[in-house]
Amino acid sequence: MATQRMLQFVTTSKQMPSKRAADERREDFAEIYREFAAEKAAEQASRCSQCGVPYCQTHCPLHNNIPDWLMLTATGRLQEAYELSQATNTFPEICGRICPQDRLCEGNCVIEQSGHGTVTIGAVEKYITDTAWEKGWVQPGKPMVERDQSVAIIGAGPGGLAAADALRRAGVQVTVYDRYDRAGGLLTYGIPGFKLEKPVVMRRIEQLEAAGVQFVLNCTVGQDISFDAIRGKHDAVLIATGVYKSRDLEGPGAELGGIVKALDYLTASNRKSFGDEVPNFDSGLLNAEGKRVVVIGGGDTAMDCVRTAVRQGASSVKLLYRRDRDNMPGSQREVQNAEEEGVDFVWLTAPAGFEGEDSVSGVVVQKMRLGTPDASGRRSPELIEGADYLEPADLVIKALGFEPEALPTLWGVPELTVTRWGTIRCDHATHATSLPGVYAVGDIVRGASLVVWAIRDGREAAESILSYLAQPAAVAAE
Ligand SMILES: Cc1cc2nc3c(=O)[nH]c(=O)nc-3n(C[C@H](O)[C@H](O)[C@H](O)COP(=O)(O)OP(=O)(O)OC[C@H]3O[C@@H](n4cnc5c(N)ncnc54)[C@H](O)[C@@H]3O)c2cc1C
Ligand code: SF4
Question: Per the count of CB atoms within 10 A, which of 34, 340, 389, 473 is most buried?
Answer without folding.
Answer: 34
